[in-house]
Amino acid sequence: MGTVHTFPRMQRLGLEDVVTRLRKMPGRTLVPAEVAHVLRGVVLEPRSLAPFLWFRPDGYTRNVVHRDERFEVLVLCWAPGAASPIHDHEGQDCWLRVEQGVLALEDFRLCRGGEAPGPAQLETTPLVRRAMPGHVDRRTVRAGIHRVHCLDTPAVTVHVYSRPVHECLVFDMERRECSVRTVHDDTVGGVPLRESGDLQRLAVGHAAERTSHAGWTQ
Length: 218
Ligand SMILES: [Fe+2]
What we know:
With 218 residues, the chain is mostly beta strands. The protein has a single domain (11-200), classed as Jelly Rolls (Sandwich), CATH 2.60.120.10. It is built from three helices and 19 strands. The protein has helices at 15-24, 32-39, 46-49; strands at residues 11-13, 42-44, 54-55, 60-67, 72-78, 86-87, 93-100, 103-113, 118-131, 136-139, 146-150, 155-162, 167-172, 177-182, 187-188, 191-192, 200-201, 203-204, 216-217. It has a seven-stranded mixed β-sheet with strand order 10-7-12-5-4-15-16, covered by helices on one side. The longest helix is centred in the N-terminal third of the chain and has 10 residues, at 15-24. The protein is globular and about 45 Å long. 33% of the residues are buried. The model is unreliable at 206-218 (pLDDT under 50). It binds fe (ii) ion.
């Protein structure tokens, strides 16, 4: 008699449920294992992502879902080919969950300097990871420098930062230096900020359950 394999059903959650679960965590900072538990093994309902899907044609946008003194939740929307600079996270923990599209995640090791603006020497780690929908990546203080690159279709990622990140160090590998960059939001609560320029709203289908080539309508 053959073996019958059963797979647990993915739990469906709204983005607002993720925020509620994070807010209910006791303590002054979020507990990493519990954040990972909240973000893994769930399907986020597309209707809960929809208000935050604002794009610009030549880069990525930061869309604030929730922010308080302990943590923030953002949706980042990536145009094909868009890439972040090589950056750290102000010493905070951060989690990135892919909802749509495919991204290359590239990690860097600090060899010299780089704790403050000025000289900074980095080396690449040998592995560039391809992150698909449902993938959760965590950056920590010790392993916090990375670059995110959106591959050939629009991508959507959900980020949790504990605590909120206001500025970061941006690294230039050729010049072997780093500088401070203030982090700017593009929308808050689904509403574009005046200084964000022209943004384009896109709709996504069943984000976490589709391939990167499906579900996009204008
Ligand atoms: Fe990052």
